[in-house]
Amino acid sequence: MWFWWFMFVCDLLIPILMIISGRIMWKHPPQKINGILGYRTTRSMKNKDTWEFAHNYCGKLWWKTGFMLLIPSAIIHFPFYNRTETEIGIIGSILCTMQCVVMIVPIFLTEQALKRTFTDEGIRK
Prior knowledge:
Helix content: over 70%
Order of helices and strands: HHH
Oligomer: single chain
Shape: elongated
C-alpha cells in the first residue's frame, strides 16, 4: 500500500505545481525581464508589455489546466489501490507522461497569443 500512496502523491505533484506556478506567474510575475526566472522566450522578452502579457496569459492557462488535471489524476489511481507495484508503477508513469505533455501545451498557446497580439518588434497590434 505504501507504493500506491507514494505514486498517488507523486502524480499529484505536477498539477499542484502548475496551480501554484500559474498563480505566481499570473499575479506576481518577475518585475524585470531576465533570462533566469519567469516565462523566458525570445518573443516574451522583447519588452515589458510582452513580458507581462506572456506571464499573465501562461499563468492563467497553467492555473486552469492544473485544476483540470488534479481531479482526474486522483481518480485514476483509485481503481489500482490493491494492485501490484508493477501495475501501479505503469499507471503512474503513463499518467505522469500525459501530465508533462499537457503542461507543455500552454507554452505553445502563449506563443500563438503573443504572435497574434504583438508584431515581431514587440509592438501591440
